[in-house]
Each structure stands twice: as C-alpha cells, then as structure tokens.
Amino acid sequence: MDGTSLRAVRIECVLRVLQEAIEIIKMSLILPKLLQEPQKLRQVLEGTSYEEILKPVEDLLESHMTRMGSELTLPIDHKTIRILDYFQKNYQIYKFFPQLMRNLSDRDRTILVSFQVLLDIAKEHLYRSSQSEISKERMLHEMYHKNEDIRKKIANLRKDLATRRVMEKWKMAAKGIYLVKVEDDLAYKKWQNNVRIQNEIEKCSRAMRINHSSSLEKQKELEEQLQIAKEAYSKLTDKHLLEEQEARNEKNKLLLQLQSLVKKYDANIGDVMRENLVLQDQYLVAKKALDSFMVVYRREEAIYNDIVVQREEEERRRQQQRLVVFMMNRAASKIQKYWRKWRKDQRKKNKRLKKGKKGKG
C-alpha cells in the first residue's frame, strides 16, 4: 500500500470515529429523558433487536433510583455503567425517538452544532493537499495583484476627482459671476417694470375718473327716466283700478242676471220634468206596441224571404232554359249556314270539273 492510500484510509478512520462520536453524543443527550420515561422506552424498543436492555433498565430504576429534591439520580455502579455502555455502543437507538431530538434544549443543540463544526474543520484539514495549497497561494497572489491594480485605480480616481473639484470650483465661480450679471439684469428689468406699472396705474386712474364722471351722468339720466316711469306707472295703475271697478260692476250685474235666470230655470224645470215623465210613459206604450209589431214583422219577413228565395230559384231555372234554347237555336243556324255554304262550294266545284272535261273532249 502506497503512502497516498494509507493516508486516505487513516483519514476515513478518523472521520468515522468523529462521526460515531457525534452519534454517541446525540444518544447521550436524550438518554436522561429516556430513563425518565421507561414506559415509552419499552413501547418503542419492544420487538426490536434492542429490547434486551429493557429489563436491566427497569431493574435499575426500581432498585437504585432515589429522589433528591426535584432531580432523579442514579448510583454510579457496575450496572449503571453497563447500561450506559450499551446505549453508547448501540447509539442508533436515538433514531427511534425523533421527537426527543427535535425537542432538544438550546444548550444541547449548541453542543451538537459545535461537534459538527469540528467535524467539518477536520474534513477540511485532513483532505487538504499540497496541490490545493499551491492553488490557494496562486489565488492569493492573483488577489494581491488585483488589489494593487485596484489601489492604482483608486489613486488615479482620486487625482481625477481632485481635478474635477478644481474644475467645479472654477465653474462655480463662473456661475457666480453669471448670476451677478443676471441679478443686475433682473434688477434693471424690475425697475423698468415698476416704471411701466406706475404709468399703467396713472392711466387706469385717469380712466377711472372719466368713467366715474360718466357713470354719475348716466345715473342722473337713469334717475330722470325712473321718475318718468314712476309717473307713467302711477297713471297706468289708476287706469287699471278704474277698469277693474267697471269690471266688478259688470260682474255684479251679470251675477244678478244669472240669479234671475237660475230662478226662472228652477221655476220651469218642474214643468219640463213632468212633461218628460209623460213622454216617457208614452214611449213605453209605443215601445210595447213596437215589440208586438216586430214579432209579427219578423214572422212575416221569414215568410217573405222564403217566397223571395223560391221566386229567385224559379227565375234562375227559366233563364237557364232560355239560355239552352238560345244556344241550341244558334248552333242549328250555324250548322245550316255551314251546310248551305258547303253545298254551294260543291256545286261550283262540280261545274268546274264538267267544264274541264268538255274542253279536253
């Protein structure tokens, strides 16, 4: 076996020992809780390959456990050490109690994390080789050169920044001069605007005085027109009052006439109503007579309608007979006419034939 293989075997052995140590620590952390709950321990391990430890644990707890204050303690004797050794050798038992592992205290978790960190550090140091160290040195060398380049760039940037600051100061000075000039221009323009505003104020004042005088004249003229309108309104009001009085008198006169007409109507309405009652009685008598007459009339009308229908049927038959006779006579005359014409044509034809025969002879 060469040196590299031997080193790899040793590394694996060391890491396995460290890993087993972490597993044993996990078992040791939950072991006090397991001993405090022997029933749960039996419930979980019974039927497994680890149930042989159940009876020694129960015997130990029954014979040697004493209560001191609020804590449970076990005597350090041969049985206790054997039980502890059994749990540490069979550290896989902790995997049957995931709930206890999840409920570890912060101190216990810190212990586990510390050992895990130690394991990771051991792996890093054990697996470290000369080639990896050389690679790290090269990386550090490259990083050093990069840092030097960055420092140079920072120095150049600082120089550029100083130059820019100087340029900015010059620019700020130029801007200050420009601002002074702009302020002077603004002050001059402000003075011009003030002068223009003062002139406009004077113009507006003159215009307001002119408008005030014209408005006074207009107001005086409107007051005169208002006085004339008031006088005209007063005259018109008097006229309307007079017309209203005349209309009221006419209304009273018409009301008196209406009352007399109403009285006359009341006097005549009785006679009219009596006459209307008499006419209604006469209407009822006439209606009864009309009803009896209508009964007779409808019966006679039915008889008349039957007679009319019979007459119409007879007249229709007569017309049809006349039409048939007319058609027969017309057909006979047509036949005779065609017969005579045919005989005449035959005679003419025979004569032509005879003349033809004589000419040939």
Automatic annotation (TrEMBL):
Residues 212-264 form a coiled coil. The keyword S-adenosyl-L-methionine does not apply. Residues 341-361 are annotated as: Disordered. It is found in: Cytoplasm, Cytoskeleton, Flagellum axoneme. Keywords: Cell projection, Cilium, Coiled coil, Cytoplasm, Cytoskeleton, Flagellum. Belongs to the DRC10 family. PANTHER family: DYNEIN REGULATORY COMPLEX PROTEIN 10, IQ DOMAIN-CONTAINING PROTEIN D. Component of the nexin-dynein regulatory complex (N-DRC), a key regulator of ciliary/flagellar motility which maintains the alignment and integrity of the distal axoneme and regulates microtubule sliding in motile axonemes. This is Dynein regulatory complex protein 10. It comes from Drosophila madeirensis (Fruit fly).
